[in-house]
Amino acid sequence: MAATRASASIDTLVAFAKRRGFVFLSSEIYGGFAAVYDYGPYGALLARNIRDAWWRAMVQEHANIVGLDSSIFMSPRVWEASGHVANFSDPLAECKRCHTRVRVDHLLEVAGVFADEKMSDEEINVLLRENKEKVRCPQCGGSDFSDAKAFNLLVQSNLGNFTGDWNKQPTYLRGETCQGIYVNFKNVLDTARVKVPFGIAQIGKAFRNEITARQFIFRKREFEQMEMQYFVAPDAMMDAYKEWRAKRWHFYTETLGFRKENIRWHEHENLVFYAKAAHDIEYCFPFGFKELEGVHARGDYDLMQHMKASGVDLMYRDPQTGEKYIPHIVETSVGVDRLFLAVLTEAYEEEDLGEGKTRTVLHLPKVLAPITAAVFPLMKNKPALVTKAREVFDMLSAQYMCEFDDNGNVGKRYRRQDEIGTPYCVTIDFQTLEDNTVTVRDRDTMHQERVAIDMISEYIRKNK
Ligand code: ATP
Question: Which of 213, 244, 268, 379 is spaced 20 to 30 A from 454 at the CA atom?
């Protein structure tokens, strides 16, 4: 990736993502649906590659981490035991002039006042009153707000409620994926031949009634999490925490190649009562540094809560010493969508080619590119070239995601592929018909090399 690059504005990225089929507004023909987005053809591929890269780094490359795919719906008792029914909320205040409801921590943040997410309603209201002169309604500019009230973020459903009895306890769409890991801890322990320390990883949808709905895919109401819970002996937690912080940093800076100036640690100062330590990895999104991933040392809180509420023994017995304890947990948690936006921000460039020429290019890590290779016949009206190009496409597409394009001149085709971050363009020309070689053009350097057809696959693999 280029060393210095001005970052694109969020509006530029939103327009680009729509134009090239990465991200669409949900239900767009009906005017959209707030804070819900769909991935288009290239977006679906990029999101899939993001999930795969995470899964490879977490599950495939760790002998002691196993995967899980638990359901979105769970017993409502899970969310009571976890504390979400009582405490999973954001403080909301209403502007007295225009009646818009706004998150108070965000109001204060814009005014340069830091409100910790663990503050009580009362503490938040004191801050809000103290800073009355500074806070402004984002809708009308007013500065008179009602007291903040806690607004629960869990999304309710009527699943299984056939009587329409609204006093019946609601079921929830899961607010985070890790609860599915905690409640399956014993199942995994009993069946997967794992021994502490070990991890359970999961990728899946989560739902939150987010109030702020104007940050593109950074904050969605339906989103996807990639979470790993690492179970360790109590006295090993802080070492494991250090180890996972280093691994997750490596994932962003080395595996995905994020530039170091775009990523930083943020240490939580006020921890929830059970947490031992918490760091976030923040990325420099177009609207500033914001949380991308959390790496948290959670102690035994989660398993303890579920053990108490379910009455099922979730203790671990050390096979060597016979000692019994509740494992402590180090959690790593990142959103697919947030990482998607970070990847797009990191990769997008409107590159100046000199002589008044520019090109838009996504410098995506090759493992994330939606299309790995585009295959072109030099001319679409020469059947011999087209047939040969089809053969090359069939050969490569068994291994890589490929695109066939015979539309317009080759220069234009290169630009189209640059825009979506395709690392290689393979062109079949007249020389191909003579010696079975093609040109392979590199997205970043724009250099072309002649490569034998039976070596293209190896060439891509080696340069990947
Ligand atoms: P924030 O403070 O930004 O609301 P959070 O601290 O509530 O985030 P966690 O509950 O720790 O987030 O969730 C872990 C990760 O899941 C986050 O780091 C983020 O990448 C992702 N995530 C959380 N909420 C959303 C959302 N509404 N849309 C997209 N991704 C999200």
Answer: 379
Q: Measuring from atom 19 of ligand 1, which residue has the nearest CA?
A: 335
The CATH number of the structural domain formed by 89-152 is: 3.30.40.230
Which of 89, 179, 225, when mutated, tests ligand 1's pocket best, judged by the most ligand atoms within 8 Å of its CB? 225
Which range is most confident: 107-111, 208-212, 279-283?
Answer: 279-283
- Which of 180, 174, 155 is closest to 73 using CA atoms? 174
Residues in the chain: 464
Note the CATH architecture for domain 371-463. 3-Layer(aba) Sandwich (3.40)
Exposed (0-12), middle (13-18) or buried (19+): which is 55, by Cβ within 10 Å?
Answer: middle
pTM (global) more than 0.85: yes
Beta strands at 448-452 and 437-442: parallel, antiparallel or unpaired = antiparallel
Rounded Cα–Cα distance for residues 455 and 437 (Å):
9
For the stretch 126-150, pLDDT in tens is 888 888 888 999 889 888 899 888 8
Q: From ligand 1's centre to the CA of 219, what distance in Å? A: 7
Mean pLDDT within 344-358: 95
Residue spans of the domains in the chain: they are 10-73+158-346, 89-152, 371-463
The residue assigned the tokens 């000199």 is 354
DSSP 73: B
Q: Which residues contact 410 (CB under 8 A, 6 or more apart)?
A: 376, 378, 427
Fold of 10-73+158-346: BirA Bifunctional Protein; domain 2 (3.30.930)
Looking at per-residue pLDDT, the higher value among 120 and 222 belongs to: 222
> What are the tens digits of pLDDT across the range 31-67?
999 999 999 999 999 999 999 999 999 999 999 999 9
Q: Are 69 and 204 in contact (CB under 8 A)?
A: yes
Give residue ranges with CB within 6 A of ligand 1.
Answer: 176, 208, 210, 219-220, 223, 225, 291-294, 333-335, 337-338
Per-residue pLDDT band for 5 (boundaries 50, 70, 90) equals low
